[in-house]
Amino acid sequence: MQLRRAAVLGGGPGGLYAARLLKLANPACEVRVYEQGDPGSTFGFGVGLAAGTQRKLAAADPDTLRELVGAGLRHDMTLQVGTDIVRVHNDRLIGVARTELLAVLQRHAEKAGVELEYGARRKAAGLDADLVVAADGIGSDTRENGPFGGRTDVGKGRYLWCGTDFPLEDAVFAPVGTEYGTFVTHAYPYSGGRSTFLIETDEETWRRAGFDVTTAESEAPGTPFAASDETSLRFLEKAFAGQLRGHSLIGNRTRWQRFRTVRCDRWSSGNTVLLGDSAHTAHFSIGSGTKLAMEDAIALVEALGEAGDLGAAFAQYEQVRRPAVERLQGLARRSQLWWESFPSRLGLPVERLMVAYMSRAGNVPLHRFVHTAPDVVETALQQYGGEPPSGELTGWVLGRPLVHGGRRFPDRTSVPALEKLFCALEDPWSAEGDTLVARAKTTDGVLISGPPDRGAVLTRLDLAERIRLETGVLTAVEAAAELRDDLADALVSGRTDLVVRTEEAA
């Protein structure tokens, strides 16, 4: 397909990368990026690039990746609860300053022959182009005013992005208790001698701390666009003094938000196609807008090169990318719900909590994690089973005895007669989940069943965990025998006490 002129709305990572790849693939095509902001001005701090994304960038554009890796900072990962710390080796992950990421992408776009226009707001309908790539972000005007079937779900928790002026040794996940409740940081170092500090909490803690008032003040008419919630920053600076080591928190339009998950029925219309956050978002605890947008750009340009017309190219692009995006959104949703209820798990030893963290979304099973962090997993298993693990891992987990409420069970599959609950929820922390928890409180124990698919099983394991933690009653979860690895992960993570495989169910 021969493109005469292509326009890209949005000068973020996805837009700039798509523009470069388009120009490299179509040297005769005029490619122009329209960014309403000024060059060099950006909100945010560091950006993480995982190993899988790096491999895809290496195949698509090794020159750009080489410079990004050179500008990045590699680091491991730690979980810290009080004075207890557990570390997992993961130096394939790099943190890059968002300003440097954009500068690299701008240079490489211009080197390829892309024209960059800043400081003017443009709309897709007003552009003279054969192809319009709408990479105009989570608040996409293109999506909101087009026939894309866009919708947005808003999370329950509150979070804010800030930074600090020194590089942490590792990525750090750390909860801190305050007089108002628990706050949790996800922090990581990035190039330039700084670190990103993302901090989140639940709605009730946020309100008790008075941050509903400071949020309203930071968003009041007349407040400078780039202003931060300084009251929250100073409070959090004291709360996370142990992690900050005397350094300050830095704001950059830092305000409390709820996470918005964007989905669209379709990603294209006419000659316009959505890319990145304009088409989809995934919770920051497992997804990365930068990763998704740059991988979108790769798939879009490949489809344009292989298809005979725009319609066929857009269909191929969506056919390739939508399954990957929806899978990640599903994982991210589970991770989001886990983090929104995180403080309830702080009774677990830190090694078991790390296992719970890694397995929270169902994509890092215990039998795989053990190869990454054998010492962590072995300690967690000994905490769970009372002795060092031996033999086949899943079988060993299922075979551990349990003492609960004065009753002793020879293994985790010996389930007594229990009150049966049927769970077909999407969110175990919903009002419907509240009803099931209240019902469980009236029993000596519950056996939770539901639809047979894996997603439904993972959800009822989350419900079982909520019931265990809030009521203390014995919990058992029913699932297909082929999901025994998921059941083992859940047992070690404290999500359930006992399990029933369907071939054993009455």
UniProtKB/TrEMBL annotation:
Keywords: NAD, Oxidoreductase. Residues 99-327 form the FAD-binding domain. It comes from the Bacteria. SUPFAM superfamilies: FAD/NAD(P)-binding domain. Pfam families: FAD_binding_3. This is FAD-binding domain-containing protein. It comes from Amycolatopsis ultiminotia.
